[in-house]
Design the sequence.
């Protein structure tokens, strides 16, 4: 089953009720999700060698246990494929992705659509803006690769040092 099949077999009202239940914080921007849903319903899927995997995860962030659903991609035809981020993937490729069997077993169709819509719009509600952000990240990564070892040491800090600086800034 492709994401496109799920989307085309569903009406917005059902998706709206589900996505608001799963992500109540998006209530003020629900019209943006509706526009995206209507837009992708008109798109033709592009075959993709990835499948969509939804995984329920627990996180102990700030010593408070929370659960969330991770949406990721996994290469087809690979026994031990790693997990891939999908938020910068073109929407027509999303539509052409199969839904992993374990995802279909654990989530309803409306939950799958809702979590995918949320992930598809994580960066922006416009596909052009998403690609612009992705190109910006690729440019920064390319510039970093071209730095000398000395420039890298001078212009970057460790994750641990960043966290320490943020905590110090937050407490002041």
Sequence:
């Amino acid at each position: 089953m492709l994401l496109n099949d799920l989307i085309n077999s569903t009406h917005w009202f059902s998706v709206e009720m589900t996505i608001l239940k799963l992500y109540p914080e998006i209530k003020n921007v629900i019209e943006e999700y509706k526009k995206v849903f209507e837009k992708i319903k008109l798109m033709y899927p592009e075959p993709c060698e990835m499948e969509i995997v939804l995984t329920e995860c627990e996180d102990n962030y700030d010593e408070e246990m929370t659960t969330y659903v991770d949406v990721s991609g996994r290469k087809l035809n690979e026994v031990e494929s790693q997990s891939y981020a999908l938020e910068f993937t073109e929407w027509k490729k999303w539509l052409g992705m199969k839904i992993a069997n374990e995802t279909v077993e654990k989530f309803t169709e409306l939950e799958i659509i809702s979590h995918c819509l949320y992930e598809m719009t994580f960066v922006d509600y416009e596909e052009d803006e998403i690609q612009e952000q992705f190109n910006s990240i690729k440019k920064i990564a390319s510039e970093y690769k071209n730095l000398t070892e000395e420039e890298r040491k001078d212009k970057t800090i460790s994750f641990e040092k960043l966290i320490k600086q943020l905590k110090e800034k937050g407490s002041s």
In short: The longest strand covers residues 50-61. The chain has a mean pLDDT of 89. The CA atoms of residues 158 and 164 lie 10 Å apart.
